[in-house]
Fold these 2 entries.
Entry 1:
Amino acid sequence: MSQPPQQPLPPPYQGSGSGGSSSSPDHDSSISSTSSALPTPTDEKKPSSYGTVISPSPDTKNLNFSSSSSSDLSEASEYADLTRNPFLDPVVAAHWRKVYEEADYECRAVFDPSVTWTEEEEKAIIRKIDFRACAWAIVMFFALQVDRGNLSQALADGMLDDLGLDTNDYNYGNVIFLVSFLCAELPSQLLSKKLGPDRWIPIQIVLWSVVAISQCSLNGRGSFFATRCLLGLIEGGFIPDIVLWLSYFYTSRELPIRLSYFWTTLSTTSIITSLMAFGLLHMRGINGWAGWQWMFLVEGLITLCIGLASFFMMPASAVQTKTWFRPNGWFTDREVSIVVNRVLRDDPSKGDMHNREAITPKRLWETLKDYDLWPLYAIGLVAYIPQTPVNYYLTLTLRRLGFSAFNTNLLVIPSSVVHIITLLLLTRLSDILKERTFVAMLQCLWTLPCILALRFWPGLIENAWGTYALMSVLLSYPYCHAILVAWTSKNANNVGARSVSAALYNMSVQLGNVVANFIYLDYDKPYYHDGNTKLVVINLLAIGVFLFTKAYYVWRNKQKDKVWNGLTEEQKAEYIKTTKVQGSRRLDFRFAH
């Protein structure tokens, strides 16, 4: 296919070659950095391992990209152009324009297959999105993690004794929270898709902050279980909602890196709340309250402020950033065009639904029975169990080892700091290698020797500092959750399916957390030999599930290649134009792995 007269070199970049000039990423991970924090989309993709939609032309079956003939080089260049901008093919562009019009897609007016931009323009826009969207997503996730994670600090202050509870009650409370969280995941996603995440997320935060504040009045087993249930029901679905909102602004290659920043909030919040707890727990006795009561009150009020601010910080989409309290919006008209078209060129399916369009029962059922995503749900179920009981019992174990309540909260900080570093490095490694399965599996390879040591090391518990060091190394593991969430989103290949599949993946994670709460039981303490034996088995199972997932997606892609390559170019074009198949079931889609 030839370029129109006087058109710059193929989108997205003017004056760039097939590989672009930004293949070396900026290693500054700060979202407020003055340069882009990730490789730009000009980096060459590997369709067989990173996921892609196949264009029907040119015929790539017999291309010899190493050939020096001008004919082959021209075809190779054209193929690279279509890889970066599938809408250069008029058949593809016409198909998706029709899809966007029928879906009443909110950004359809700025869809433009021919628009081009420079690498510098895109970097500047990415920095702006990082500062406005990603940064506030991190703040909101901080609000979530404060109110679902401060229970461990309360334990260090003797909350269980104050309320007349034991560790079994604590386990039951965690299970109630997780089951409630799990049950709310899918309904929350359906609400978010109907109302828009820009409306639903702030409502969620305000509602759970009220429950979090009420925990300062806990008076026994019943009130403890009730607040755990309410927090789970309201907080459930928040993470998939945030991922959906961020996907409106980022490409599939950029999203995992941003989600890695997002999930560093887990550890960052742990550090901040540990330092806050050191001060707030010293307030025990003021006004007759325990330190943990003051902690719930103060941290709940912080969450409430974040929730109220979120109503004004979350635009509905790239074309809806201007409003009465933000008259200039986030972007200029040209920047809006770049933001929308760069996302659509990466994943055309992001425009097949309106951002306030409800998911129909038919679409919901189609996503539920999409067995090609089940391997990712299986990973979510088992991959995070091995480290969870150790994390839940960290403060209780440190108190049992003889550390004071205040020192206990400070001792959790080192593992949290290292956890942030390993998470960012793991996600960056996945991006550099363009590999998801084997890189994400490094989490299991990190935790396995630590779990084996917990089971068989004779100095466990007797050696206080050795036990603390072992648990800290385990909890410094490289967290693969950001990779898995973005991976699930990519393989869903449809806005409606993406919303539901994100919820289903998170539900599988929460179900795994429920299982994790029954690993360390009261009869087995303090060494938890039976529990750690189970963790070793589950860790090995998780490695097996990762390997199976890799093999499965390689096999499925080969299946699709065989059928797709057997079609003529006319049949391929007709399929793209007329097929009613959506999501990952399309013949022209290849799974990321």
Note: The chain has a mean pLDDT of 82.
Entry 2:
Amino acid sequence: MAFWWPLIVLAFAYAICRFLLMLIPPNVPSIDVDASDVLAHGKETEENSFIYIPPRGRSQQSDKKVQCYEPATMKYLGYFPALSTSEVKERVTLARKAQKTWAQSSFKVRRQFLRILLKYIIEHQELICEVSSRDTGKTMVDASLGEIMTTCEKITWLLSEGERWLKPEYRSSGRAMLHKVSRVEFHPLGVIGAIVPWNYPFHNIFNPMLAAVFSGNGIVIKVSEHASWSGCFYFRIIQAALAAVGAPENLVDVITGFAETGEALVSSVDKMIFVGSTAVGKMIMRNAAETLTPVTLELGGKDAFIICEDADVSHVAQVAVRGTLQSSGQNCAGAERFYVHKDIYTAFITQVTKIVKSVSAGPPLTGRYDMGAICLQEHSEHLQSLVNDALDKGAEIAVRGSFGHLGEDAVDQYFPPTVLINVNHTMKIMKEEAFGPIMPIMQFSTDDEVIKLANDSRYALGCAVFSGSQRRAKQIASQIQCGVAAINDFASNYMCQSLPFGGVKDSGFGRFAGIEGLRACCLVKSVVEDRFWPLIKTKIPKPIQYPVAENAFEFQEALVETLYGLNIWDRLRSLIDVLKFLTDQGSHVSRTRKSH
């Protein structure tokens, strides 16, 4: 006890010191970002104070400008240039030059960059959410959940564990290389390219940027033409934080444009991250194949939402409605197929109907609404076509929500929350990605049946399984083909930033987020060196030196059995033979082994 007592005292003192250090706030400078031109009630010029009417039936692809407007009100926000191929390549060249300097930066500097960002985000939550709301139509609450919390979680995870997972990782050297030290090193790739969608403009920029910059890379991000206004403002935040830590200019860049811009980016970078539709993902792959550029694809989703008969119906109904109606088509993880056990089917629909009837929808910055506008032009027509197809094939509308006060010019940007019953897999709504506030509900009788239904999809991003038995829910989830599974919850995986995120089948491949996503931004290099160098150096055994000895193969046979034989006595016998081969008795051993 006399020996252990001082150690206990020291351990306790160390713990107290660590706790006291935690009470000392870190010295994190503040950054100033000009937001005067993005505030909803700020000073506006006559040029961009009108209602924008996008041309119907054609895209902006032929224009040299990316026109921006508020989907909730159709108010004009301004425009940004659609960069040409040569302009994109020039931006990547500048980022590549900056990255060579940044690659030498310390993790201490990189962590300070993250802390500066975190401080700004926490202090300017309302501004960030308001900009996201204006550009995409989502509510402030949904912006907070999907933009602020997820990004803050990623930053804190990188601060806590990022350096640990980028340091060299030592591995076993095996039997033949016992005298060696083996490790894996993680080096920056160079310049990462990212093409990101409109649904969460703040997080979709910060997510790949944080991983790329922390791992020593530069990054060029093409933002969606449907969220360029917000993306270019969020870029100012990144620029200010990089300048505060003395990072080289052009390390991070945000570019705007259409297909030509994206194609140029794919052919210019060292790694490509794409988040978007399956059709465009396939185009990205084809273009990347020309330069053998590695890609990570996070594509469409049609997640199965499974509710067993022993689940808490009222609770799950609330989760299901939020998962479906969140930001009216801004869904993060795509819960789009609902399978409810026949014993609680009626009770679940009753609960869902009650919730949907209470949902209020309207321009998110003009009142307290539960649901905002649809970001994409003419998307409401596509959603209605899916509903019509289901109705033609026997489905029924259980309940349909209503809206608050809408401006005449923005009516087409809204779609009423819709619950469909009596659906089946012949209907498009159960096969095609909707990305809208539609909840199709189908019955099932057995666990085997619902597993088969859940796997009957070309998409395989995620699933959610609800049951009063945790074991049962896990068994069901384990048999569903997907990359992300939530047990008795929905979309909680993404808040666990230590976990990888991505799907299989038409939902893509590769992973971002977590350890896997962080290391995916790296050149993974295997390194082997002598363990006791220069005392012990690798030498080629004499029997297999050129010119090889007559008994070279017999030596190899004995060596293999020595290293990998299943019987310890055979291995010892072979070891003796190996030692003899290395001496002048090798010829005698050769004749003996041949006689056996």
Note: Residues 86 and 264 are 8 Å apart (CA to CA).
